[in-house]
Task: structure prediction
Amino acid sequence: MADQVLDAKGLNCPLPILKAKKALKDVPAGGTLEIQSTDPGSVADFEAFCRTTGNELLESKTEDGVYVFLVKHTA
Amino acid sequence: MSEQNNAKSMSIIVTKGSLDWAYPPFILGTTAAAMGMDVTMFFTFYGLALLKKKLDLQITPLGNAAMEMPMMGGHMTMPNVMAMVPGVDRAATVMMKNLIKKKGVASIEDLREAAVESDIRMIACQMTLDLFEYRREDLIEGHELGGAATYIEGATKSDINLFI
Result:
């Protein structure tokens, strides 16, 4: 279970990333943030975001048409 | 601002101020800032209008051959002779803004606010301000004034430089 959950469903690029970055500020280091998105582009974008920022993408999956990402706040 | 030391940096020259052209610089600027980069945006010529407190951005199908609006399962393009009819720009703008809302795309106002919040350095071109007779108080808080040399100084140290 993630420490925090961000509902970014219905939002388009770049809002899921911008909101995730904002939400990560309130997640303590080592904590996790779950992001739910309906933007198909967010799959590649969260991978790129995590690679660039150094945060860890623990999980990326699809549940009933919703893309779910689990990001560990490490950077 | 970025939490990392030695953060990478990006600069964008923003030269266009229509509703469609306002998107690429603000999307890339805010996303780069979210990814820990130091971002500078230099607003010049028509791009300077994007710093005005009150935004009234428009779109035009005139001379915009690639503009296709989704309509009734297909796409609608508009010949120039129709695009120049009074009121068509306004209608196209309303249509685009409805699409933007419907598809969950951020408004330019929201993206600009995100840019301010993420400490993007925004430089208003002094020459453009004089040329088009804008007043500094018409522009949003937080911008600085500068010219070509101000931009170049930042660009020489920047990892990515874009002209939009």
Remarks:
- DSSP finds two helices and four strands in chain A.
- The two ends of chain A are 20 Å apart (CA to CA).
